[in-house]
Amino acid sequence: MKRFLLYAALVTGAFVSVFPYLLVVLTAFKTQGQLNSTDPWLPGLPPTLANITRLLGGDFPRYLGNTVLMTAVLTIGQLVFTTFAAYAFARLRFRGRDALFWLYVATMMVPSAVTMIPLFLIMRELDVINTWYGLLAPYILGTPYGIFLMRQFFRALPGGLEEAARIDGAGPMTILVRILLPLCRPALGTLAIITVISSWNSFLWPLIITSGDDTKVMTVALAGLKVGIGVDYNLMMAGGLIALVPMIAIFVFFQRYIVRSVVLTGLK
């Protein structure tokens, strides 16, 4: 009976979690008439690709490309700068290292909405509003979570590897690039997946800092579909489906890295 109740609770939780995504898929393949004549949880027969074709025939592919570019640049920047910062906090010795690290990590307790206005004012003074520089600058140099994740992994590596390398005449950069980084592939993969997901779904900062089509990303474009008189739910759900497919693929193929991030930060 206990096992039965456990699986019943798991199935119920899974259904509640998956049901909104099911509605997105069903609505994306319905016509306007089918949307009004059928229940939301029932498919429209026959299904139609008109919503996706209409969406892809406009400016949406451009916004999708902007999102891909932003995600790629932020991911590369996070991997590079986060690795250097984490290595310094984990392996290099300098005055105030631990205090500086924990002060930086403490910024994770500050909601991102609190820092949006100060960031916007800084970008305005730098005259980078509605530019790629303003869109990428606040997050390309690393995040507290990423640095904490990589630092925990660096600290778990045996110190004897570095000592042997120093005896052979290797410097800090050589030790990092040729010895430690090859051992950090699991953590780097985890950080990359998390950064891709967070960058792909980023909405508030792109909404504030950008206003033109040259820098508009997919999430902002989807939100713009509901302005004006009436809402085309079929078109919005088609855009949501396009945005959802890459994230589902990433989760299916790389879910072990996402789970590993919890293990690395919780147990190390």
Task: Write a short abstract of this structure.
With 268 residues, the protein is mainly alpha-helical.
Folded structure, characterized:
It is built from 14 helices and no strands. It has 268 residues and is an all-alpha fold. The longest helix is centred in the last third of the chain and has 35 residues, at 233-267. The relative contact order is 0.14. The chain crosses the membrane at residues 7-29, 68-89, 101-123, 135-154, 235-254. One of its GO terms (cellular component) is plasma membrane.
Averaging pLDDT over every residue, what do you get? 85
**CATH topology (level 3) name of the domain at 60-224 and 246-267:** MetI-like fold
At CATH level 2, the architecture of the domain at 60-224 and 246-267 is Orthogonal Bundle
Helix proportion range = over 70%
Q: Report the major sheet.
A: none
CATH class wording of the domain at 60-224 and 246-267: Mainly Alpha
Keywords: Cell membrane, Membrane, Sugar transport, Transmembrane, Transmembrane helix, Transport
Transmembrane segments: 7-29, 68-89, 101-123, 135-154, 235-254
GO cellular component, one term: plasma membrane
Membrane topology: Multi-pass membrane protein
Give the tags:
single chain, 268 residues, mainly alpha, MetI-like fold, 14 helices, MetI-like_sf, transmembrane helix, membrane, Multiple sugar transport system permease protein, transmembrane
